[in-house]
Specification:
This is Disease resistance R13L4/SHOC-2-like LRR domain-containing protein. The chain is mainly beta and 130 residues long. The protein has a single domain (12-125), classed as Ribonuclease Inhibitor (Leucine-rich repeat, LRR (right-handed beta-alpha superhelix)). The chain contains 1 helix and 9 strands.
Length: 130
């Protein structure tokens, strides 16, 4: 679905696919917050929501996506502390994550020791923090 102009908020029905493994809504012009129902996508191993107009903090339910290998969220206006993002994944000890891109957002704070627990991480794109 990448590149299709939704020009709306995140479609709630999209969070009902419990067996979905790959979701790419990059460059779809999505607006608003990432819904907490995203945590229902428990089989997801790739989540790409880059190049849109998503804003606000990442939902706590993101920590329920224990099978994630790629989390690509660059070029939005997501906010909050970077340490909170890593704290969300404590729930399932997400060690399978291989690629994480948080660049070009409005994140704040410092990296914590939690990053070291992502032992499979191969690519990490980090925002400039002011």
């Amino acid at each position: 679905m990448s590149g299709n102009p939704f020009n709306s908020t995140f479609p709630p029905w999209m969070c009902g696919f419990k067996h979905l493994e790959y979701l790419d809504l990059s460059s779809t012009d999505l607006k608003g917050n990432i819904p907490s129902a995203i945590g229902n996508l428990s089989s997801l191993n790739t989540l790409r929501l880059s190049n849109s107009h998503l804003e606000g903090k990442l939902p706590n339910s993101l920590g329920s996506l224990c099978k994630l290998r790629e989390l690509i969220l660059y070029n939005n206006t997501l906010s909050g502390a970077v340490s909170e993002i890593f704290r969300r994944f404590r729930r399932c000890n997400i060690v399978a994550l291989k690629k994480l891109d948080l660049s070009y957002n409005q994140l704040s704070g410092q990296l914590t020791d939690s990053l070291g627990k992502l032992s499979s991480l191969q690519k990490f794109y980090f925002p400039t923090i002011g």
